[in-house]
Amino acid sequence: MLIIGAKGFAKEILEIVHHLNQLDDLAFYDDVNFGMPEKLFGKFPILSSTDEATNYFKSIDNRFTIGIGNPFLRKKLYDKFTSLGGIYTSTISPTAIIGSYEVEIGIGSNILSAAVFSNSTILGKGCIVYYNSIITHDCVIGDFVEISPAVSILGRCQIGSFSKIGSNATILPDIKIGINVTIGAGSVVTKDIPDNCVVVGVPAKVIKKLNPLEF
Q1: Rounded to an integer, what distance in angstroms lies between the CA atom of residue 145 and that of residue 128?
Q2: Catalytic residue among 11, 76, 137, 156
Q3: How many CB atoms lie within 10 A of CB 155?
Q4: Where does substrate bind (predicted)?
């Protein structure tokens, strides 16, 4: 597998792959940070050009996942590396707790240790669910959503694509959160949130409007 990125969140994904015992032919990709070593931790090759990535997909392994957290960048990288022949692939920690009934996890999602999914939950493509986060029954999460550590998303919530939920935030039942929304750390969301905004506080309130995303 090729992990796109070789810093920060990419190292979180490495730990998942390590516990899955899938380290054979593992490589990373970084074409933006200069001075990177040839191998991460002296062990895993770091590719730095699209030609190298294309060759990797053709001759070694066509799977890739994205080790960068920003939802907007994740979508752009998904488009780029899919166009090079890569197959977008999820990484799910063996210590995550996944419900047995009606759980859907979209391609390319990264599920970290101790994340919990109840039954009847849907997670879109390319999402991140961090340590100790809980998604309870009948929740629907859009594409490329970032759920930070220890978030609680309670029953029947809907989260729009490209949104970011800060650490320890709580989304109360039946709440609808729009597209491209940032929820501040520790916030408690008690009412529906429109697209393209930042909300913080207890209860959470809109403090800033955001420009719609353009791809």
Answers
A1: 6
A2: 137
A3: 17
A4: 69
